[in-house]
Predict the structure.
Amino acid sequence: MKITRLVWYAGGPLTFSGGGERLLLEGLRHFEFMGIQAALFTDGSALAPGHLFDGRYSPRTLITQRSPGPQRILRKVPTLRHALRLWEDAGAIAAFRPDYVIANSPGAAVSLLRMKLMGRLRGIPFACLIHGSLFQFSADREKYALVFRPYFRRVREDDPVYLATIPPRAPPATVWTQLKLELHVLAQWIAVKRAAVVFVLTQKNRREIELFYRHQNVRVAHGAFPRELLRYRPVTGLRTPERLSGKRVIFSLCRLEEKKRVDIIIRAFAMLVERAPDVALVIGGTGPDRERLQALAGELRISQSVVFPGFVPDGELYDYYLSADLFTSADIADFDLTTFVALALGRKAVVSSQHEFDPELGDLRQVFRAEPSPEPLAAAFEAALAAGDPCDAETRAKLLAGYTWETYFETLKRVMEHSARPRTARR
């Protein structure tokens, strides 16, 4: 089946400039380049482009026409009001006449399945994206649900990081809270099972989804940067703070929250400074953990060597990478977009041993993996800074060709077209 019209269903508003949002917006743009009319559906309202990545993206957005009369009548009956909103949202999607829909998460897949059961999107196949593991968030209770229980222990014990960060049992909860959780997770399980294909970013993610959801069509595909980035040249020099003058710079870029483990990076950097005082750490990004991380740098007496520039605009993003000698990420994840941007720009990267890389990427001579704790990470910083030059630009371009947005979205298109029934069979 040839896809000519596609809807990317996010299920809720896009309010943060993160990796998942970058992937979604790049996808809409690249599908348009392929000749597919692609549209975004969030919560039925317009996207404010200026709120994401400096307004770099302006996708086609589907808008739901709400019915004010019934909304007022049903405002005291949340379940009915929600059903009405789904009915209206399904109408907005159906009016676009998509050949295929991409659910941006299991939660979005649940809403799509409900729309299909209402009869409004019947016959339109959908794919589901699952960007990571439930085990990446220690506070997420979904992983403890009954439907996942047969494989919980196996997945937890298969990863040293999960074993160290994920309790073997769920925190106590009331019967009502637990019942709501079980029903919520069961709905997601059914919805993901009904997806024509599930896309994940790593082989480890694939194994988990095959176990947890018993899905027979889970595909690994990954993209992180535009192909043109492999030929990028810096526009400006960004080592403007005087305290970076003459220093070897380590750069980190992420949302400043507990999952990203920036505190481990700071503690590792403090150990490095004792042995190599000519280093500096630049921590880009914003988030709820910023004040705690700044206080930690003060406690370790390294504030003069640590810079928090805040949000990094898209127009300066690549130059930030190139102004550094080394990139680092300790995120609890198997795949990290920012790391692959650094590799594409020829920068060495020190990352958690949890991060997954295809074996042939060892020829880049750019990746240094370490256990995500201060001492191993500090040793990896030192080794990476002392290491020789990475491979040449031509070899790097060949090795990283499979990680471009172009390759990623071409793969999604090809797999979706092969996983759907012909259009005539769905009428």
Notes: The two ends are 13 Å apart (CA to CA). Residues 55 and 239 are 25 Å apart (CA to CA).
